[in-house]
């Protein structure tokens, strides 16, 4: 298995964890089963971890959509089988443009599923938009899926151009466990490119942190055992280094929060329905402390900033 295959395998892992949690009712997502058919049960702390991740990311995305009155753009980098667009569309919250980018092998699989699931195709054509679909790319009105290697900013720029991206519109970029799999110089080039080219940009990043301790090492071994770990991955050491990677690449503000704090900031009524026995609470907290959310802004419209948790 090549290194890139191991990175692509992280998508199957994320999608199957999301599917398993949705199946147990942690949150509603009527689309994930179109992209990930069956899923074995996951440990309760994994389910809760994905629940907190999805709630945290959506809180920030929804604020961006509110701030921009759905007239901005969302670019999901390393989107994998993410279903956010489909769910936002159902809530009448889809932005002016929603673009997903991933390796060709992943977008080709996504394209296959879209072409072979009538419900998905019908959704795309419901607005009478012209749907252009190739073996790897899709352009359907406001929704685009394109294949590009994020380590190559030139290729990304070309693909975003094919989606009609507007550099003058407020644009929110999202990465969930993606930057960490890129060489640091490549992720730095990507982060630097955005504020240089977009008039007003937001960034939401969800990622591992504090991986140097004993629990972190066990997590890395588990990832490798599931075929989706890479030797030599350089994790950000702490929340400060997560913020600094943005502040040192042209972003004007950056905040970072540990997922333990996101978990604690969720409405208690939500969390209580999944309350596990105390021993599993501890295990969950240990796991959450190794993930974080970072959000950064560059020239946000009227000084509006995102906050967690609203
Ligand atoms: N964001 C999705 C989610 O949360 O469900 C998928 C997350 S998965 C952990 C990471 C994704 O990033 C994979 O789909 C992988 O193919 C993609 N990725 C990582 N490095 C990439 C690169 N250099 N170019 C394009 N995609 C990349």
From TrEMBL:
<keyword id="KW-0489">Methyltransferase</keyword>
<keyword id="KW-0949">S-adenosyl-L-methionine</keyword>
<keyword id="KW-0808">Transferase</keyword>
<feature type="binding site">
    <location>
        <position position="78"/>
    </location>
    <ligand>
        <name>S-adenosyl-L-methionine</name>
    </ligand>
</feature>
<dbReference type="GO" id="GO:0009966">
    <property type="term" value="P:regulation of signal transduction"/>
</dbReference>
<feature type="binding site">
    <location>
        <position position="176"/>
    </location>
    <ligand>
        <name>S-adenosyl-L-methionine</name>
    </ligand>
</feature>
<dbReference type="GO" id="GO:0018423">
    <property type="term" value="F:protein C-terminal leucine carboxyl O-methyltransferase activity"/>
</dbReference>
<feature type="binding site">
    <location>
        <position position="53"/>
    </location>
    <ligand>
        <name>S-adenosyl-L-methionine</name>
    </ligand>
</feature>
<protein>
    <recommendedName>
        <fullName>Leucine carboxyl methyltransferase 1</fullName>
        <ecNumber>2.1.1.233</ecNumber>
    </recommendedName>
</protein>
<comment type="function">
    <text>Methylates the carboxyl group of the C-terminal leucine residue of protein phosphatase 2A catalytic subunits to form alpha-leucine ester residues.</text>
</comment>
<dbReference type="InterPro" id="IPR016651">
    <property type="entry name" value="LCMT1"/>
</dbReference>
<feature type="binding site">
    <location>
        <begin position="149"/>
        <end position="150"/>
    </location>
    <ligand>
        <name>S-adenosyl-L-methionine</name>
    </ligand>
</feature>
<dbReference type="GO" id="GO:0032259">
    <property type="term" value="P:methylation"/>
</dbReference>
<comment type="similarity">
    <text>Belongs to the methyltransferase superfamily. LCMT family.</text>
</comment>
<dbReference type="Pfam" id="PF04072">
    <property type="entry name" value="LCM"/>
</dbReference>
<dbReference type="InterPro" id="IPR029063">
    <property type="entry name" value="SAM-dependent_MTases_sf"/>
</dbReference>
<dbReference type="GO" id="GO:0005829">
    <property type="term" value="C:cytosol"/>
</dbReference>
<dbReference type="InterPro" id="IPR007213">
    <property type="entry name" value="Ppm1/Ppm2/Tcmp"/>
</dbReference>
